Each structure stands twice: as C-alpha cells, then as structure tokens.
Amino acid sequence: MKRFIFLALSGLLIFGLERLVVSGYELNVSARIAAGFLCLFFFPGLCLAEIFLSKDDADFADRIAFAFPLSLALFVLPALAFFVFETRLEKIFPVLMGLALAVWLAALVKCFFAPPASGAKPGAGRWVALALIACSGVLAWLVGASRGPEHDWDLYNYIGMVRKFLLWDQAGIRHYFYVDAPPDPIHSYNLHALIWAIIAGKNRIDPVPLYIHSAFLTVPLCFFSFFSMARRALGDRAGFLAFVFYLFFQMIFSGLYFVGNSTFYPDDAIWLLCLPVLLSLAFLYLEKSGWRLLLLSSLSALAVSVVHPLWGLAFYMVAAFFLAAETVRGSGAFSLLRQNLKSGLARSSLLLSAALVIVPFLLTALYMIIVAN
User: Average pLDDT of 264-293?
Assistant: First the structure.
C-alpha cells in the first residue's frame, strides 16, 4: 500500500504541475523544466519498472536508474511513426501524455492488488550513495550545464536541432543542421531531441536556458545509472566503491564536465544515462530470465539505437563480448536462459526482440540506399 500511495501522490503532483504550466501558470524556469522532464523523461519509465519488475528484481535505486531509458522505450515505436509522417508537435504531445497517464494508471492497479513487498532493507552504503547523488543534483543546479570550450560546434548543432523541431512544429528527419544539408543518419530519428523540443514548446522555455538549467535532473540520473550497473556487475560492496570513485572523479576532478553534457547531447547523454542501464538490464536478465525482462531490455535497446545507432551498436557489442566470456566460463546464467527458452512465449519474445534490434540499422541502410540513388 505504501508504494500505491507513493505512486498516486507522485503522479498527481507531476501531472498536476505539468497541467498548471501548460495552462499558462507562470513558475520559475527550474520548476517548468522539472514538470516537463518528469512527465516525459522520467515518470513513465518509473511506472513501467513498477509494472514489470518485482522488488527482488530491482530496488528503488535501480528503478530510478531504469526510468530514463524505459521512458524512451515506451515512446519509441510511436515516435518512429511521428518522424515518418512528420507529425506536428501539437499532436504528438497528447499522445505521449496519454501513454504516460496509461502506464501510471496501470502501475497504480498493479500496486493496489499486489501483495506486500518483501526484501532486505537498504544498507548504509546505499543511503550514502543516495545522499551523494542528491548532492550532485544540488551542485548541478548551482553551476548549470557547461560543454567546456566557449566555441563548440556540437553545442550549436544540438541546441539548433531542438530549436528546429520547435520552429518547424513537427517531427521530421530533413535538414537537421543546415538548410541545404541531407539528414544525418546517426541522428535522423532523434526521439531525445524531439522530447526536449516538446518540453521547450509546451512549457515556454527557450532551448538555450533549457540546456543550461536542466542538468540538475540529468546529472543525478547519470550517477544512478552507473550505480545500478556497478552493483549488478560487481556486487554491493565492490559496486559501491566503484561508484564512489566514479562520482568523486566526475564532481571534483572533471567538474561535472562529462555528466554536465547529459542534457541535449545524444552522444554523451546516451552513454551516460542509458548504456550502463542497458548493461544492468542485460545482467539482470541473465540472472533472473523471463519475458518481462527480455521485453524491457529489447525495447530500451531499440530506443537507444533509434536516438543514436552507434551507441546501440556499442551496447550489442559489449553484450556479445560478455555473453562470449560467460560461455567460456561456463556460468549458470545460460542454463537459466535455456530453461526459459523452452517456453513458447519466451521464444516468441526473443524473436520479437531480435526484430526490434535490427530496426534502426535497417532504417539507416534504407536511408543510405535512397541517398545513393
């Protein structure tokens, strides 16, 4: 019942705040950014994790880490249609909000009827990690996002990409960077930029301050993402030590240079926010197996590949290397996998996942053929 109350109050607060902002109520820029980001980039994925994952699969820290790529996974298939048909932003927004509300209601139903969750209470190390992550959000709120050098071509490209969606008022793959340039096959179906453009338009925020002031939300998620992967791969104790080293390196030595680029930059945002989570989901699937984990992993990988195919390819290569290493070691992970594949539903899910995996690469190949002709 506690989870039901938490989800119900969180949804009312997040969706209610976004409704106020969209209706024209003037809040400060951080509140308007938070309303849009939580509605579209975070809360839908958190609700999906609540629906498909048990507490034994993923604790609260893992669910927060999974929220960003799972939100992209929820929107990825409709988004491909939006790009193909060049749908106007005014029509895209209610579709995305409708999906977000639907998964929220489904998560409420699941929590209401689910038996009380059991599991070990978080240890002291986990609370320390959460406190450090919260401090990173405060620091990012104070300093904002900064690419580093004053003149950075990517800065103008990616902010320009969000602004062009906003000015065109539609999704499309034409002329991302320059007026007469063909679409870039790496960023052609950039769901990441499209959602940022919707937040900028509906919440009345210019893309430049949106880029600068949204780091207080994305920077903590980067650390949650790494924390989830480190614990899953190394265990709680070693994962916590690896996380602390990573966090203090980013906060003190690099001055949030890399994680501060996790707002508009699909190159940096995807490998910081999504790639560790994809690996964490892959490790979790090998541990637990089951069609639910397979579905979440494959849709999240598809979403990452649609935003940036090279990072999707990087995930598949890392996953293949890990699977090859596990095969040589002869671990028990594959015995679980073989048992799971005896189920007809699991085999169908695996075939569907394989089909989803190749979608972004087929789109890119199709684009190259069209351009060549």
Answer: 83
